[in-house]
Amino acid sequence: MSSQHNCPCSPQCALQSALDAIGGKWKLPVLCSLSANGKSRYNELLRNVQGISNTMLSQTLRELEQDGLVLRNEYLEVPIRVEYTLSDHAKKLQPILLDLIRWRMEKGDDA
After folding, report:
1. Where do the structural domains in the chain lie, given as residue ranges?
2. Is 67 left (phi over 0), alpha (psi -120 to 50) or beta?
3. In sequence order, what are the beta bridge partners of 71?
4. What residues pair up with 86 in beta bridges, in sequence order?
């Protein structure tokens, strides 16, 4: 890792920041659901992400939106319709996550 990317143990570590953006119990399942199903409404995500509570889904979506990974589109209809999609920035993660899957599968045992 070059010095311009900062040392992983420094406070400005880009790697740690990236891992924080996708880390936690629910962020990857929400991102995977949006990746697999495309544009989704809140209740669709609640059904697709097994075991997540309303509170955790709401918090997770808010954090993903703040990190620029999820876009929230609100349509001024009655009732108001809200849809969530992956941002272009999040779509760049897909090949990286697939590489991580392949890396883990190469281990060969209980992967």
Report:
1. 3-105
2. alpha
3. 85
4. 70
What is the structure's pLDDT at 4?
54
Question: Could you tell me if 46 and 52 are in contact, meaning their C-beta atoms sit under 8 angstroms apart?
Answer: yes
For residue 39, what are its two tokens? 């544009």
Element (H, E) at 42: helix 42-48
Can you tell me the distance from the alpha carbon of 18 to that of 64, in angstroms, rounded to the nearest whole number? 12
Domain spanning 3-105: CATH 3.30.1330.10: no
pLDDT tens figures, 27-84:
999 999 999 999 999 999 999 999 999 999 999 999 999 999 999 999 999 989 999 9
Question: Integer distance in angstroms from the first to the last C-alpha of the chain?
Answer: 27
Which of 75, 74, 81, 84 has the alpha carbon at shortest distance from 31?
84
Report residue 97 CA to chain centroid gap: 11
